[in-house]
Structures are given as structure tokens and as C-alpha cells.
């Protein structure tokens, strides 16, 4: 990697508060300035918790149990950061559910201004900023909308407001937690287009979590595939789609139909991913893997480089490449 | 349009309820044993003068007529006079101050302690503290307010000398000191009801996605608590508080009698045990109207807190 | 009146979710044991009052007024030289009697009204429910205070002492609402079941529906409410007596005892502490039974 990363997460582990059930297990990744990293996986793979750990925004009874989170300071040097200190300070987040992520008792204008107000902006400046942001995210008649309540807006408009809120703190890194999952297809398309545009115009770095490989393929420069709390493969998005190495990624790509690319059902993979706390010994994908051998169930294969800028965590990587060729 | 209709609906309901209240209060006069006119003039008054007063008070007419007459007097702000000739409005004007202070004190102590207790319980939810608290709150509902009041007087006011043993002070400082113990005694009955409801709504709000959103933007501390948490958790509690207005009023009546404070409650008790019908009628009506108004205010306030309610 | 038992969602504990309680006992057992021990002691004391006291709660010993506790007078004497222990125990008779009747009568009344609402046509149903809305929002205790104060305690009635009947009637007017709502919901639920609906069209008498299907389910919750309501009624009775409304002041009754002792709070504080502790303990015992039963209900 040539550029200095903006954010570096290393050896992250997340578990239930009593420490009994591991949920994310030794995950490391980094994001360069202006880059979009996609995190893809089925529900329960730990991708959302990985994302939320960057800001320490866990549900009750879940906590980070290890790992380092470093973010580049103004001169570009990576320094250790308390995740809570990153909230609204260089990093912000777009949440999944537009119906429940907007405080129902605040007007749109106040909501969009709230983050800037918390950073010390005057009421008038924050209001002006809110108006500008609503315009930027494509809310029609933004002046009128400033006084509207969240429940008066459609799902797509709410998600635009959510994005405006996230932008209000002028982040360098935007975290997106399945921001289009709850929307129907046309709106989903518009929101993705908006995010792409904002990224370009503002030079934002993005970590984008989705269970939809199609969405990831469209927006992410680089993609990390998660399974049972770990990253099993990471490479440039084009490479992941065109030349997947890990059997799980292959199954994902194969099961990506042209119309509905969601991962709700994986016809090519029998069985279901293991629940947290029920992870098998060895490779966690082994029980469902058609290439698994005895050795796969013994020790967990590490994520290793298999090509230029391409890492995969499969014991039989070499053999499988040969079989394929 | 819908909004206007809902207001019209409410005003309509309000009128019906107020009429029912006046009817109930009017019935009070009819159940009192003995002759109101005779009671006023004493046993030695002549039959003619009693008869004259009966006519003056309208007691010789039919009940519907008397009720309409009563409504008419109410509209003119005339609540009648007490047995010894004082206008009821004057008695009310004198007693309403102490009653108001007791209400305010009880409310402030209850709401503040309910917020504190609910906050800690919500933070440590389902832990030993939370469970223990739930039981303590349940049991404290069954402590007689007047007994708690006497315990506070005997074991706090008397040994420390910080608080007056009964009565209400005149200067702001004395007034405050004399309100402390009654407010605590009143709050012991009201806090548990509020704290339980607030605990569960706080948990809902703290787990909500919009609070996570606010946190993700770096909003914290007082702003987070006021704008994002309490504003959303308060709605159900406001409604509950309004529903318990009658219970709160009765609690204040008990407090006045316990702490020897001359407010509306004490006046009501004294009047009712001395058959002073018009005083009983006037004060009861005032309390009843207070309950109706508080319920309405509660509805309006919880609408204001939750903008979704106002339009639907 | 506030509805205590419905406002108590039992938090799910490890024991409840696992279905295997840690202690090996059902949930709420501890509360039930403590609560029923307390209540049993009070009931026994009330039943055997003449044998565990000096016998006459009204006997005055004017030479020996406001005496401190001693071997002769366990809790001392009051301002008329009456033995406080004797009065305290006899008061349990009055308070339990009024409390139980004041809770059970509205429970029966409310159950009947609820059944009527559940089976009645829409007009009957909605007018009953509308009326219950009004009752809940009315300052009934203040009305009650005014009413009983004006009317006076009156004579005793049958086995009831002076002032007891108006209070019981007052409770009947106030607390039936919870039972009526509970029963109405249950009737509607049962009647919407397919097999009951089929049996009803097939000529199953209503009595059979009520006895066979509605009551067994609703009874448990009703018992929870009844225990809580007895406790609240006892607190309310003694409060009214303290306010000098209803039960005459010289009756051996806990609230009345406190009222007549209030002038001696400085010197003879036990005259106030003892009756109040009796009210609080008995009411808390009843509340514990109610809450323990509630825990069991939620578990099953």
C-alpha cells in the first residue's frame, strides 16, 4: 500500500459484556483517505459490530475486548484514538433504519444542526449549515423541510436527512451501516448515487457494510469478506468479484443472481453460518465447504497474501487454484 | 383540519365532563342530613326566619330548578357562603396558596427523584440493584402517607430543629424549610408510580437507534440527555402523571392534615365534618375541575412532546 | 386508585428465561412465604384478640394515662389510659374486615360487570367502558371524603361498626373498574376462540362458557389484584379514619389511634409509630403475596 492509511483497525475483538461469547475475532483492516472499503457478509458475521466498534457504539451487553484503533491526525500520522473521541470528530455514521434513526421529537432542521451545535457552532451558523446540507443531499424545498418532523418524511427522504446529519460534522471518514437495506430498489439506487457523488465531491473515505455483494460491487474500491467474526478474504473489489480465492467468497459470487443479489439465501452453499459462540474449531467455514478436508477442521487458517494486494484465509488455497486451472 | 376537529372534540368532552362534575357536586348538597337553613341560623331561630332563608337559598324549589340556579351562580362566580357567613370564594382564595405549594413541592421532589431512580435502574437494568429497587418501590406504595409524615416530624424535624413541626412559613426561606418534609412524605407515594414507568421508557429510548445516532455525532452530556433522551421518555410519564392527579390531590389533602397546614384540604375536612355544605361544595368542585384541567393539560403536553400524536 | 399490579412488568431474569430457577424454587416463592407469614400473624391476632390482650379495648385507667411500655401495658397506655396493645390488636379486626370487604366486593362486582360488558351488545359494552373511564379520572377519594364527612359515620350495620359500611360502598364504587376490564378482555378472548364460537352457535349456554373457560383463566390475575387491593384498602381506611372521616375517632382502629395520639408525638411517639407500623406491615405483607403470585403467573 503506497498511501498512508486514514484509519487502521488492528486485532479487533468484540464479545458479549460477560466475555462469554466472542462476536468479532481478530479483525484488522485499514482505509486510505478517499477510499471506500466494503465489508460484506451474512447477518451475524460481525460486520456491523466491526463497524460500530470504530465509534464504540455497541448495543447493551456487547463490548470491545481487544484491538487498536488508530486514525491519522492532521499531519497524516497514525495515532491511537479513543473511539468515543472520534464521534463527530473526523468520523460519523449513516445508520440502517431510516424509520428509527431520527429522533421523533426534533424538527429536521434541529436534527441536522445538532451535530454542528455539539461542536460549538452558533445557532445561526448551524441553521445555515443545515439548510446547505439539506440542499446538498437533494431534499426538495429544503427551507420548508427545516421545520418538518421526521414522521412527515418518506423513508428515502429520511435517509437523506440521516446522511446530511452525518455530513454536518464534516467527517473525513463516513461509516455506512447497510444504509440502503431498508429501502426499496429505486430509492436504494438514488441513495447509492448520492453517496457516490458525496464521496467524489468531498473526498470522503467510506467504510460501507452490506450483506448485498451487488451494492458493494457498485460502491466499494476494496472489499473485505467476513464470515463468523473474521475476515476471510480481502482484495480490490473487481478482483473479489472476478477472481475470488476463498471458497466462501466464490460461493457468494456464484450465488449473485443478476436481479436479486441479496445474500438472504445462498443456493450454492448448504447449511447456515454458525451462530456466535458455536464457532467450530479450525476453519469456521469448513462444515459448509465443498472443498474441506480433514486438516481444515484442525487449525484456523490465517489471512495471508495470495497475490498482489489480495489476501485469503484458506488452507487449500494453492491446491484450489490448481484445481481451477 | 383533523387537528381542529380533535380540538373541538376535546372541548366537547370537556364540557360534558364539567357538567357531570357540577352535577356530582350538586348532589353533595342534597345528601347532607338536616336543613341547611336551620343549620345556619341555629336551633333558636324562629320558623319564619328559617323559612325566609330557605327561600333565599332556593331550597324550596324543585331539584332541577335548584341545579340550574346552582349553574347560574357558578357562572357568575358565586359559590355561596359558609355557615358563619364568609364567602366560599374568600375561603378558597385563602387556602389555595398553601395547597399550591404542597402540590408543587410534592411534584418537584417526586419527578426529580423518579428521574434519578429510573436513570440508575435503567443503567443497571436487571441487576441486583434494579430488582431490589423494584421491590422497594412496590412496597413504598403501601406506606401510609400520614404515618411517614409523622415519622419525619418526630425523627427528623424535632431532633434536628431544621424544619418547623407543622405549619407553613411566611418568608421564602421559612416557606422552603416547611415544605421539605411534606414534599418528601408526598413523594414517597408518588415517586414509585413515576419511577417504574420512567424506567421502562428510559430503557426503550436508551436502546433506540436515534440515541446511537446522536452519540455518533459526538452529542453527549446534558444535550444528549435533554434533547434526545428525556424528551422522548417523558411522554408516557406525563400521561401517567395526569392520570394520577386525583391521587396526588388526595395526597395533598392528607399532607395538609398531617403537617397542620391550612390549605384547601384542611378546609374541606373541617367543613365536611361540620356540615358546612357550600364550603364542601366549592372546594370539591375546585379539586374536580383541577383534575379535569390537569388531564387535558397532560394530553396537550404529551402531544407537544410527541409530534406524531398531534396529527394522527 | 392506582393500579399497582398491572404496572409491574417482571423483568426477565436468567432464572425466568432458562425456566430453571437457580434456587430450585418457583419465582416469587420467597415473597409468598414472607407475605403469607405476615398476613397469617395478623389474621390470627385478630381472631384471638380477646385471649392475647387485656380483653377490652375501651377500658380506661385514668390514673395511669400515657404510661410508658411496661410488663402490664406492653405498648403503654393512651391519653385516656387505655391499653395500646389491646387496641392495636382489636384494630386488626376492624381494618382487616373493612379491607377485605372493600376489596372483595368490588372484585365480585367488577367481575360481573366485566362479564356483562363482554357478552353484552356494543351499546352496553361501550357505555360501561366509558363510565369506567370517567370513574378512573374522577377525584373520587375527595368526593368520598366530602360525602362521608357530610353524611357522618351513621350507625353500624349488621356485624359492621359505625362508618364501615359507607367506606366499603365507597370502595365498591371506585375499584371495580380493574376487574371489569380484566374480565371483559378475557370474555372477548375466549369467545373469539374457534371451538368456543362453534360450541356457542351449537347452543352452549353462556353459563358454561363462563364457568368452563373464562373464570379459570381470569381468576389468577383477579387474585393478584385482590391481595394488592386489600392492602391499598387498609391504607385508605386508616387514612380516612385519621382524617376523622368515616370511622369514629374512639374506635380501636389504627388511623384513628394515630389521630388521637398526634398531640403526644414528642413524648409518647410509640403511640404513633406502633399503629402505623401495623398498617405498613400488613399492607406490605399483602403486597408481597400479590407480587409473588404475579411472578408465578408471569413464569407459567
Number of helices of chain C: 11
Shape type of chain C: elongated
Mean pLDDT of chain C: 83
The CATH topology name of chain C reads: MetI-like fold
Find the structural class of chain C using helix and strand composition: mainly alpha
Element order of chain B: H for helix, E for strand: HHHHHHHHHHHHHH
Approximate strand percentage of chain C = under 5%
Measure the end-to-end span of chain B.
Answer: 11 Å
Approximately how much helix is present in the residues of chain B? over 70%
Membrane topology (chain A): Peripheral membrane protein
Family (chain A): Belongs to the ABC transporter superfamily.
InterPro entries (chain A): AAA+_ATPase, ABC_Ni/Peptide_Import, ABC_transporter-like_ATP-bd, ABC_transporter-like_CS, Oligopep_ABC_C, P-loop_NTPase
Main location (chain A): membrane
Structure characterization notes:
Chain A is built from 11 helices and 12 strands. Chain A is α/β, with parallel strands linked by helices and 325 residues long. In chain A, the strands form 2 sheets. In chain A, strands 6-7-8-3-9-10-12-11 form an 8-stranded mixed sheet, with helices on both faces. In chain A, strands 2-1-4-5 form a 4-stranded antiparallel sheet. The longest helix of chain A has 18 residues, at 185-202. Chain B is an all-alpha fold. The longest helix of chain B has 36 residues, at 88-123. The termini of chain B are close together. Chain C has one domain: MetI-like (MetI-like fold), CATH 1.10.3720.10. In chain C, helix 4 packs antiparallel against helix 9 (206-242). In chain C, 48% of the residues are buried. The chains are: A alpha/beta (325), B mainly alpha (312), C mainly alpha (300). Chains in contact: A-B, B-C. At the B-C interface, helix 1, helix 6, helix 7, helix 8 and helix 11 of B face helix 5, helix 6, helix 9 and helix 11 of C. Chain A: It comes from Agromyces neolithicus. Chain A: InterPro entries: AAA+_ATPase, ABC_Ni/Peptide_Import, ABC_transporter-like_ATP-bd, ABC_transporter-like_CS, Oligopep_ABC_C, P-loop_NTPase.
Amino acid at each position: 500500500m503506497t498511501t498512508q492509511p486514514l484509519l487502521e483497525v488492528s486485532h479487533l475483538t468484540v464479545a458479549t459484556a460477560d466475555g462469554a461469547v466472542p462476536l468479532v475475532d481478530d479483525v484488522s483492516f485499514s482505509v486510505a483517505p478517499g477510499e471506500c472499503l466494503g465489508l460484506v457478509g451474512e447477518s451475524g458475521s460481525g460486520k456491523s459490530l466491526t463497524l460500530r466498534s470504530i465509534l464504540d457504539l455497541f448495543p447493551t451487553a456487547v463490548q470491545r475486548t481487544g484491538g487498536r484503533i488508530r486514525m491519522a491526525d492532521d499531519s497524516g500520522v497514525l495515532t491511537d484514538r479513543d473511539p468515543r473521541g472520534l464521534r463527530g470528530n473526523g468520523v460519523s455514521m449513516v445508520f440502517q433504519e431510516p424509520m428509527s434513526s431520527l429522533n421523533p421529537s426534533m424538527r429536521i432542521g434541529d436534527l441536522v444542526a445538532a451535530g454542528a451545535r455539539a461542536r460549538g457552532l452558533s445557532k445561526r451558523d448551524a441553521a445555515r449549515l443545515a439548510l446547505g446540507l439539506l440542499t446538498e443531499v437533494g431534499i426538495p424545498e429544503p427551507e420548508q423541510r427545516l421545520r418538518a418532523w421526521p414522521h412527515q418524511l418518506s423513508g428515502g427522504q429520511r435517509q437523506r436527512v440521516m446522511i446530511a446529519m452525518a455530513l454536518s460534522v464534516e467527517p473525513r471518514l463516513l461509516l455506512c451501516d447497510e444504509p440502503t437495506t431498508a429501502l426499496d430498489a429505486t430509492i436504494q439506487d438514488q441513495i447509492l448515487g448520492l453517496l457516490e457523488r458525496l464521496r467524489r465531491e468531498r473526498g470522503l473515505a467510506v467504510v460501507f457494510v452490506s450483506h448485498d455483494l451487488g451494492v458493494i460491487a457498485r460502491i466499494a474500491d476494496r472489499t473485505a469478506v467476513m464470515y463468523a467474526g473474521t475476515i476471510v478474504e480481502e482484495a480490490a473489489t473487481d478482483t473479489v468479484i472476478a477472481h475470488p480465492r476463498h471458497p466462501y467468497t466464490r460461493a457468494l459470487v456464484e450465488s449473485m443472481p443478476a436481479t436479486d443479489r441479496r445474500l438472504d439465501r445462498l443456493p450454492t452453499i448448504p447449511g447456515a453460518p454458525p451462530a456466535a459462540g458455536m464457532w467450530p474449531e479450525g476453519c469456521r467455514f469448513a462444515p459448509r465447504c465443498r472443498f474441506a478436508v480433514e486438516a481444515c477442521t484442525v487449525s484456523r487458517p490465517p489471512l495471508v497474501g495470495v497475490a498482489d494486494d489480495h489476501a485469503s484465509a484458506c488452507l487449500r488455497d494453492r491446491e484450489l487454484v490448481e484445481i481451477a486451472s | 383540519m383533523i387537528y381542529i376537529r380533535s380540538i373541538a372534540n376535546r372541548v366537547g368532552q370537556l364540557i360534558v365532563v364539567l357538567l357531570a362534575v357540577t352535577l356530582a357536586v350538586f348532589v353533595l348538597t342534597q345528601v347532607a342530613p338536616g336543613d341547611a337553613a336551620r343549620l345556619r341560623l341555629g336551633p333558636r331561630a324562629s320558623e319564619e326566619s328559617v323559612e325566609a332563608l330557605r327561600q333565599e337559598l332556593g331550597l324550596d324549589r324543585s331539584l332541577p330548578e335548584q341545579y340550574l340556579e346552582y349553574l347560574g351562580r357558578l357562572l357568575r362566580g358565586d359559590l355561596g357562603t359558609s355557615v358563619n357567613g364568609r364567602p366560599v370564594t374568600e375561603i378558597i382564595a385563602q387556602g389555595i396558596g398553601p395547597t399550591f405549594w404542597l402540590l408543587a413541592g410534592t411534584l418537584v421532589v417526586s419527578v426529580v427523584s423518579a428521574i434519578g431512580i429510573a436513570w440508575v435502574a435503567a443503567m443497571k437494568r436487571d441487576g441486583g440493584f434494579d430488582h431490589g429497587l423494584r421491590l422497594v418501590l412496590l412496597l413504598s406504595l403501601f406506606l401510609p402517607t400520614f404515618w411517614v409524615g409523622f415519622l419525619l416530624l418526630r425523627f427528623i424535624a424535632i431532633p434536628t430543629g431544621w424544619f418547623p413541626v407543622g405549619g407553613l412559613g411566611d418568608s421564602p426561606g421559612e416557606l422552603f424549610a416547611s415544605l421539605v418534609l411534606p414534599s418528601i412524605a408526598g413523594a414517597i407515594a408518588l415517586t414509585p408510580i413515576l419511577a417504574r414507568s420512567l424506567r421502562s421508557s428510559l430503557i426503550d429510548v436508551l436502546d433506540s437507534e436515534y440515541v446511537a445516532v446522536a452519540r455518533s455525532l459526538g452529542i453527549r452530556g446534558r444535550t444528549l440527555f435533554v434533547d434526545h433522551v428525556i424528551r422522548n421518555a417523558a411522554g408516557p410519564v406525563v400521561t401517567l402523571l395526569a392520570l394520577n392527579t386525583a391521587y396526588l390531590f388526595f395526597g395533598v389533602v392528607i399532607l395538609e392534615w398531617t403537617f397542620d397546614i391550612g390549605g384547601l384540604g384542611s378546609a374541606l375536612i373541617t367543613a365536611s365534618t361540620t356540615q358546612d355544605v357550600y364550603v364542601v361544595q366549592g372546594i370539591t368542585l375546585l379539586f374536580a375541575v383541577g383534575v379535569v384541567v390537569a388531564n387535558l393539560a397532560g394530553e396537550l403536553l404529551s402531544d407537544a412532546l410527541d409530534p406524531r400524536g398531534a396529527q394522527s | 386508585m392506582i393500579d399497582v399490579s398491572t404496572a409491574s412488568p417482571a423483568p426477565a431474569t436468567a432464572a425466568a428465561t432458562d425456566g430453571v430457577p437457580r434456587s430450585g424454587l418457583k419465582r416469587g416463592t420467597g415473597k409468598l412465604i414472607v407475605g403469607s407469614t405476615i398476613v397469617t400473624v395478623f389474621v390470627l391476632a385478630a381472631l384471638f384478640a380477646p385471649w392475647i390482650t387485656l380483653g377490652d379495648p375501651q377500658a380506661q385507667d385514668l390514673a395511669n394515662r400515657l404510661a410508658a411500655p411496661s410488663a402490664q401495658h406492653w405498648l403503654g397506655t393512651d391519653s385516656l389510659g387505655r391499653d395500646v396493645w389491646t387496641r392495636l390488636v382489636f384494630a386488626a379486626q376492624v381494618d382487616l374486615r373493612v379491607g377485605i370487604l372493600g376489596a372483595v366486593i368490588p372484585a365480585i362486582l367488577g367481575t360481573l360487570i366485566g362479564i356483562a360488558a363482554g357478552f353484552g351488545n356494543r351499546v352496553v359494552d361501550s357505555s360501561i367502558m366509558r363510565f369506567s373511564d370517567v370513574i378512573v379520572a374522577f377525584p373520587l377519594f375527595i368526593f368520598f371524603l366530602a360525602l362521608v364527612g357530610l353524611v357522618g359515620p351513621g350507625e353500624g350495620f349488621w356485624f359492621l361498626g359505625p362508618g364501615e359500611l359507607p367506606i366499603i360502598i365507597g370502595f365498591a364504587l371506585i375499584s371495580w373498574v380493574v376487574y371489569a376490564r380484566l374480565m371483559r378482555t378475557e370474555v372477548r378472548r375466549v369467545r373469539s376462540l374457534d371451538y368456543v364460537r362453534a360450541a356457542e352457535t351449537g347452543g352452549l349456554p353462556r353459563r358454561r362458557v363462563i364457568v368452563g373457560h373464562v373464570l379459570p383463566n381470569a381468576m389468577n390475575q383477579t387474585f393478584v389484584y385482590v391481595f394488592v387491593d386489600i392492602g391499598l384498602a387498609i391504607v385508605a381506611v386508616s387514612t380516612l379514619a385519621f382524617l376523622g372521616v368515616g370511622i369514629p375517632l374512639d374506635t380501636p382502629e389504627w388511623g384513628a389511634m394515630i389521630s388521637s395520639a398526634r398531640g403526644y408525638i414528642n413524648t409518647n411517639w410509640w403511640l404513633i409509630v406502633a399503629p402505623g407500623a401495623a398498617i405498613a406491615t400488613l399492607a406490605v405483607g399483602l403486597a408481597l403475596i400479590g407480587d409473588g403470585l404475579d411472578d408465578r403467573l408471569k413464569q407459567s
